[in-house]
Specification:
YchJ-like_M; NTF2-like_dom_sf; 4-stranded antiparallel beta sheet; UPF0225 protein Sdagh_03130; single chain; binds zinc ion; YchJ-like; 4 strands
């Protein structure tokens, strides 16, 4: 497992995992905003939770299977901006930088709300 230096959630928020993304991963709650879903998906990458990633992927763009690389060491998530994506919207975007040992991923992701739950549609690489 990923070694944690603090008890805060891997997504970068100060709450412990169980009170943050863990609620979404377990299915106890649904991410209320596109940003919350984005954070929980980053956190799922950290925790190698491929099932959660597939479950929160739009059926139209979802890969058949997802093989996560256990050697990948994610080191942090920075949310750079959002558009829409609240409880009052059906679409939204989240621009972020996700860092890993040796590099980072700068992306603007598109999200859609289906049956009340946010799902990831696709993303555009920046830089
Ligand atoms: Zn979290």
């Amino acid at each position: 497992m990923v070694a944690m230096t603090t008890r805060s959630c891997p997504c970068g928020r100060s709450e412990p995992y169980e009170k943050c993304c863990g609620r979404f991963h377990s299915g106890a709650a649904a991410a209320p905003t596109a940003e919350a879903l984005m954070r929980s998906r980053y956190c799922a990458f950290v925790r190698l939770d491929a099932a959660y990633l597939l479950r929160t992927w739009h059926p139209r763009t979802r890969p058949v299977r997802l093989d996560l690389d256990p050697a990948m060491r994610w080191t942090g998530l920075e949310i750079l901006g959002t558009t829409d994506g609240s409880a009052f919207h059906t679409t939204g975007t989240v621009t972020f930088r996700a860092s890993y040992r040796g590099g980072s991923l700068h992306e603007r992701s598109r999200f859609q709300r289906i049956d009340g739950g946010w799902v990831y549609v696709d993303g555009e690489f920046l830089d």
